[in-house]
């Protein structure tokens, strides 16, 4: 069953603009992770935020986590054409589960 | 390090045939897993392993078999291929020192069952 659900499912912006993607989940989590997938390639880990963290930064990426609302957002600032990809959130549940549950993904297109 | 290597990249099977998707990692990761990715479905976990000799089922295990005889290798076997198994398959691995460690994915194997 899907845990994370990304929103919107597709987003098209101009280079230089910011892109915000949201993820909602259903059960208590240990951490939430964001991945990027370029067309025809495997997934690449972007950033992880733990359940006791509220915000995390990595370069042009900013992730927030609101456990009371069971939601997370990924902000990409000053987007580039190379950011064009699908983005997935994935959750690791509490209890030390070895499994990550992925959302269906969101397609970001950055137009030059 | 080569990371996670999957073979073959592309494969066409006839219904009822069997085959094995190979996965190897050279990072000495304890945890390995197989996912399938279908349009609009995200990634779904098929089987996973937390170490050599230990495997467990994921969300969609039916029709697939795995074994983990070494730390490096985690092959996925399709026992009798069906058109519903047409998908892109990803192998992944990570260290098992904590539930949050980064997962490394292979480049995928595109499988078509006709």
Verbal overview:
The complex is a heterodimer of chains A (112) and B (114). Chain A is an all-beta fold. Helix content of chain A is 0%, strand content 58%. Chain A contains no helices and 11 strands. Chain A has strands spanning 5-7, 10-14, 19-24, 29-37, 43-50, 55-58, 61-66, 71-76, 85-93, 100-102, 106-111. In chain A, strands 2, 4, 5, 9, 10 and 11 form a 6-stranded mixed sheet that branches. In chain A, strands 1-3-8-7-6 form a 5-stranded antiparallel sheet, with no helix packed on it. In chain A, a hairpin with a 2-residue loop joins strand 6 and strand 7. The mean pLDDT of chain A is 90. Chain B contains no helices and 11 strands. In chain B, strands 2, 4, 5, 6, 9, 10 and 11 form a 7-stranded mixed sheet that branches. Chain B has a 4-stranded antiparallel sheet with strand order 1-3-8-7, with no helix packed on it. Chain B has strands spanning 4-7, 10-13, 19-25, 31-38, 42-51, 54-57, 64-66, 76-78, 87-94, 104-105, 109-113. Chain B has 114 residues and is mainly β. Chain B is globular and about 40 Å long. In chain B, 0% of the residues lie in helices and 51% in strands. The chains are: A mainly beta (112), B mainly beta (114). Chain A binds chain B through residues 1-2, 30-31, 33, 35, 40-45, 48, 50, 88, 90, 92, 96-105, and chain B through 4, 31, 33, 35, 40-45, 48, 50, 56, 58-59, 90, 92, 96, 99-100, 102-108.
Q: Give the helix/strand class of chain A.
A: mainly beta
Largest sheet entry of chain B? 7 strands, mixed
Classify the helix fraction of chain B into a percent range: under 10%
Continuous helix count of chain B: 0
Q: Which secondary-structure class do the elements of chain B indicate?
A: mainly beta
Strand content of chain B: over 45%
Distance between the termini of chain A: 37 Å
Report the portion of residues of chain A in β strands.
over 45%
List the helices and strands of chain A in order: EEEEEEEEEEE
Low-pLDDT runs of chain A:
none
Biggest interface found: A-B, 27 and 27 residues
Question: Shape of chain B from CA axes?
Answer: globular
- Number of DSSP strand runs of chain A: 11
Radius of gyration of chain A: 13 Å
Count of alpha and pi helical runs of chain A:
0
* Low-pLDDT residue intervals, each spanning 5 or more residues of chain B: none
Main sheet record of chain A = 6 strands, mixed
User: In terms of quaternary structure, what is this?
Assistant: heterodimer
Sequence of secondary-structure elements of chain B: EEEEEEEEEEE
Terminal CA distance of chain B = 36 Å
Mean pLDDT of chain B: 93
């Amino acid at each position: 069953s899907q845990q994370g659900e990304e929103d919107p499912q597709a987003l098209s912006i101009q280079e230089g603009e910011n892109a915000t993607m949201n993820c909602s989940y259903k059960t208590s989590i240990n951490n939430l992770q964001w991945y990027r997938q370029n067309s025809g390639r495997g997934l690449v880990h972007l950033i992880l935020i733990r359940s006791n963290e509220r915000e995390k930064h990595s370069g042009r990426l900013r992730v927030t986590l609101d456990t009371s609302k069971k939601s997370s957002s990924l902000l990409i600032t000053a987007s580039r054409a190379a950011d064009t990809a699908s983005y997935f959130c994935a959750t690791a549940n509490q209890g030390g589960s070895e499994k990550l549950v992925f959302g269906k993904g969101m397609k970001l297109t950055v137009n030059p | 390090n080569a990371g996670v290597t999957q073979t073959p990249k592309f494969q066409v099977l006839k219904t009822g045939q069997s085959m094995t998707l190979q996965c190897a990692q050279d990072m000495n990761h304890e945890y390995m897993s197989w996912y399938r990715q279908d349009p609009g479905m995200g990634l779904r976990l098929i089987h996973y392993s937390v170490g050599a000799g230990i495997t467990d089922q994921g969300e969609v295990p039916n029709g697939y078999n795995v074994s983990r005889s070494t730390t490096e290798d985690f092959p996925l076997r399709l026992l009798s291929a069906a058109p519903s198994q047409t998908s892109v398959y990803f192998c992944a691995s990570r260290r098992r020192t904590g539930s949050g460690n980064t997962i490394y994915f292979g480049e995928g194997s595109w499988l078509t069952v006709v």
